[in-house]
What we know:
Blueprint: H1 2-21, E1 24-30, H2 33-47, E2 50-58, E3 62-69
Antiparallel strand pairs: 1-3, 2-3
Amino acid sequence: LxxxxxxxxxxxxxxxxxxxxxxxxxxxxxxxxxxxEAKIAAQAKAAGTGxxxxxxxxxxxxxxxxxxxx
Length: 70
């Protein structure tokens, strides 16, 4: 019984830690790469974090995705 309680507590703790480890993803659309990155940078600044660009696509508009980092 004690081993089961310890296992349940360990799983619960890991679940909480894992949930906090996920970075927030943000996106932006603009007519240029610089414009899209400026929007990402503004979102990161508002959240008080840094950012890492994970994807950028260029078509009629530039679409950029980034993860906010602490």
